[in-house]
Amino acid sequence: MPVYSISHVENVRVCVVMVGLPARGKSLIAQKIVRYLSWLSIKSKCFNVGGYRRELAADVGDFTAEFFDPTNKRGLQYRQSAVDSAINDMMKWFVNENGVVGILDATNSTKQRRAEILKLCRDNYIEPMFLESWCDDQDLILQNILDVKTTSPDYVNSESEYATKDFLKRIKFYEQNYETMDVKHDSDLTFIKLVNVNQQIILNRIESYLESRIVYYVMNLHIKPRSIYLSRHGESEYNLTGQIGGDANLSERGWRYAKKLPELVLKSLGEENKHTNLTVWTSTLNRTQQTASFLPYKKKLQWKALDELDAGECDGMTYEEIEQKFPEDFKARDDNKYEYRYRGGESYRDIVIRLEPIIMELERQENILIITHQAVLRCLYAYFMNVPQEESPWMSIPLHTLIKLEPRAYSTIVSRIKADIPAVSTYKEKGTSQLGEIVNGTTSSKSRDLINDSKCV
Ligand SMILES: *[C@@H]1O[C@H](CO)[C@@H](O)[C@H](O)[C@H]1NC(C)=O
Ligand SMILES: *[C@@H]1O[C@H](CO)[C@@H](O)[C@H](O)[C@H]1NC(C)=O
Ligand SMILES: *[C@@H]1O[C@H](CO)[C@@H](O)[C@H](O)[C@H]1NC(C)=O
Ligand SMILES: *[C@@H]1O[C@H](CO)[C@@H](O)[C@H](O)[C@H]1NC(C)=O
Ligand SMILES: *[C@@H]1O[C@H](CO)[C@@H](O)[C@H](O)[C@H]1NC(C)=O
């Protein structure tokens, strides 16, 4: 498998055109693809026609279902110019910003409109790929409506019951013109058709490598509600001495965190979900397995891909020792932590590449708890929270804290549950070899002071 970077897809540009009625999860899928590709350093962006419509037709005020009536001339005009603006901006982005994958997130895709987009793409050497989400499972649709109406800007001030009714009416209007894709009539187009999310997936003329990556990704998606728990291992003996790498055991306080972890998880699951079984993933290193050792769940898996960033020649050293022995390396790492690769070891970019299969498998999973290491956790978190590469290696992910992620249609809800167990800070600011976190602009806990945080958020 090749390394994913812009250079690899240099001349390939793909326009993913979403197709499908409202409440079919199109925006969710579109945003996930953008998040996934950006995480792999492939420049991608979503152009949401709904957003353009809200901006252009700001004077309309409320977007009730009548706006979407095909006989509403004014509505049609606005919707047409929204599509045109979105396409126009997308084309500019491809050309001026070297975009690689643009996603056109629109609803009203008739055969005629598809033909127009097709022509425009071909004229500009962009590969068009249609992605239809087709759905007749009423439960799925209602679940989507629930998600949309609670998060969509179109219904911010509406009562929930009214929003559902109005939204169903809007869908009815769209159904009047909707033409689905099929292998017989669209045999010359590149398309993916998802039937009831992933009950059935129809693929047609998937050609480039990039397209097949996208296909593989969407095939692994599901939309069942679930929680993803992330935790670093408990404090290790190396953390006490400030050494990096190695395969140390937990410290006494680290063991206390391990013993407390089952209780933290239970508390977060809540009374009604207390019998939920989580799958537990750890790395192959002692400290993560020790941290998982008191959890009552049967399914525990070890992944080599979850092992800590390999510090190569610096393994077992403290940051001070690295600064003294390899001053240039120390500076180079601070200057570009994402790309810096330890002598004989790894960079953050290397971790992202080895985590890709983990992300695919994670998308397939339901409730899960992952116990891993600081650098790996930063990369996983960056994927879920869309954190840019320049920032992710500097994110603070303290010890003895359980992070809960709940992916929703338009965002991911995060909560941090702190165990009332002190640990050393393992956070290193830029430009220093001292450890400690900045609080209110000053380093409050320089060096290896204790962070004693007992808040429960
Ligand atoms: C929606 O589809 C109808 C029927 O093909 C077409 O007349 C109309 O222009 C389309 N509107 C937009 C905004 O795409
Ligand atoms: C904490 O200790 C482990 C070794 O037990 C090490 O891999 C990790 O890098 C340490 N964290 C920091 C940032 O010092
Ligand atoms: C970890 O603990 C075990 C059992 O107490 C001991 O045998 C082993 O040597 C320890 N490992 C390290 C790296 O200290
Ligand atoms: C979780 O696993 C236990 C033991 O394997 C089982 O008794 C329990 O029913 C499971 N809980 C759920 C919600 O499936
Ligand atoms: C820690 O890991 C080493 C090798 O990776 C192993 O030999 C040792 O038994 C482990 N210690 C414990 C306590 O699990």
TrEMBL record:
List, alphabetically, the GO terms of the cellular component aspect: cytosol
Residue limits of the 6-phosphofructo-2-kinase domain?
Answer: 6-225
Spell out the CDD domains in the cross-references: HP_PGM_like
Tell me which residues this entry annotates as catalytic: 233, 308
* Example GO biological process: fructose 2,6-bisphosphate metabolic process
State if Nucleotide-binding is listed as a keyword: yes
Q: What class of enzyme is it?
A: hydrolase
Q: InterPro entries recorded for this chain?
A: 6Pfruct_kin (IPR003094), 6Phosfructo_kin (IPR013079), His_Pase_superF_clade-1 (IPR013078), His_PPase_superfam (IPR029033), P-loop_NTPase (IPR027417), PG/BPGM_mutase_AS (IPR001345)
Q: Which domain of life is it from?
A: Eukaryota
- According to the UniProt entry, what is the EC number of this protein? 3.1.3.46
Q: Name one GO molecular function term.
A: fructose-2,6-bisphosphate 2-phosphatase activity
Q: Which key words are in the record?
A: ATP-binding, Hydrolase, Nucleotide-binding
> Which residues of this UniProt protein bind substrate?
232-239, 287
Describe the family membership recorded for this protein in Swiss-Prot or TrEMBL: In the C-terminal section; belongs to the phosphoglycerate mutase family.
Record protein name field: fructose-2,6-bisphosphate 2-phosphatase
User: Which gene specifies this protein's sequence?
Assistant: FBP26
